[in-house]
Amino acid sequence: MKSRAARILTAVGLALAATTLTACTPAGPGDGLGASHPPGQTVAAFYGDSYTRGTGVSDPELRWSTQLSEDRGWAEINPSVDGLGFVVNRDLLRDDLVELIVAEDPDIVVVTMGLNDNFAPPEEAAKVESAIRDDLSTFANELPDARLIVVEPFWHTERRPASVDTIIGWVRDAAADVGADYIPGASRWLEGHPEWIAPDGIHPNDTGHAEIAERMGEELAKLGL
């Protein structure tokens, strides 16, 4: 018998996959990996999907993570990949992003993963939950001096399948278990504002990224960052 989580992913997550994320396909990692930084500069690494990679903006400098890093004087490492989840499309990557980020030894790690895992096959529900715990545990254990910030997974349509809240719960609980800071509410930051979405109907546009940068900045300020 399937678990309740598996049934949720089956009933609503997969039904949306064909129509909402067909444009999200894996791309190669990059963006700041291996770069040198001035002594004393805070290095922030971002672990996410197309929403964090900046798909949908007219210029990479306008993506929310870059705006946030520039405002705070951080050196940005952002190997985020379109279509990636904690499980979804992960086996298509040549290099695992968690390993790449750990190798950079950043001062801050911001995790925004989870949206694409709503489209995982039903039999992988338990695997998604386990991968969330494994990734956050790896960051916490391998980067004990880094500030680990886990963000509620983004969402992008008015239709909100039950799997969204299921995965949010897994991410929130895993963050608490490793003592990470947690930013709630991000799945609703774009809600009710279709004008903040790019013509593809999936990704934030320039205005959407500016809004995410502002909201993220407010939340980080509450955490003393």
UniProtKB/TrEMBL annotation:
Q: Which residues form a coiled coil?
A: none
User: What are the entry keywords?
Assistant: Signal
Which SUPFAM superfamilies does the protein's record reference?
SGNH hydrolase
Q: Does the keyword Signal apply?
A: yes
Signal peptide start and end residues: 1-17
Q: Name one Pfam family in it.
A: Lipase_GDSL_2
Entry superkingdom: Bacteria
Matching entries from InterPro entries are given as: Ester_Hydrolysis_Enzymes, SGNH_hydro, SGNH_hydro_sf
- Per the database record, which ranges form the SGNH hydrolase-type esterase domain? 46-210
Name the UniProt record assigns to this protein = Lysophospholipase L1
